[in-house]
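Throughout our pipeline, every protein is held as a single compact record rather than as scattered files. Such a record has a labelled line for the sequence and another for the backbone structure tokens. This encoding replaces a full spatial description with a residue-level series of whole-number codes. For reference, a complete record is included directly beneath this paragraph.
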Amino acid sequence: MRSVLCYGDSNTYGQADADTPDTRFEASDRWPGVVRQLLEPGWLVIEEGLSGRTTVDDDPVEGAERNGRRYLRPCILSHKPLDLVILMLGTNDLKRRFNKSPSEIGMGVRALVWDIRALPAGHGGRMPEVLLVAPPPIQAELGDWAEVFEGGHEKSLALAEIYERVAEVEEVHFFDAGQVVDTAGGDGFHISRAAHRTLGEAMAHEIEAIGWP
């Protein structure tokens, strides 16, 4: 059996809406759950989504535990050996309080790739495969959340190209989630139940396309 770690934020956790943080799609509806349904019994799919998770920053409002870099290493070590790590982070880095450019967000995800590379968490002490996923852009109109994500829409549009460059330099796999799903129809930065299904199907295809020996 192969194993994949799905490491992300609320769009991996399955949060339905920012105004109701305790609402969460059922396990079978979240994109990792869809991947599980499509790849079982040959794959163990591990969900590690946390609402508010950033790439490498402590959140002064939501807490230091939202720093994706703090938990990534112990998370990987607790689940090894791993065949694949999927990283889908960056949306929360768009918040105004972090004041980060798209390039700086890209530097954050690159640091996470470095951390994975530093851990021989694959089989036989090898590095697991990494699939770097650019999150879908957030919407221009965010209602009550507009100030929190001020300027975020424009920045989010640049992430896919930056992530793809990071993936090329680091020689890891890349996927642009914005090519198959969007954040329309809800609060403007979470994906819908239907989008989780679509994304899960696309992720399963990407996993199978890696070309496992």
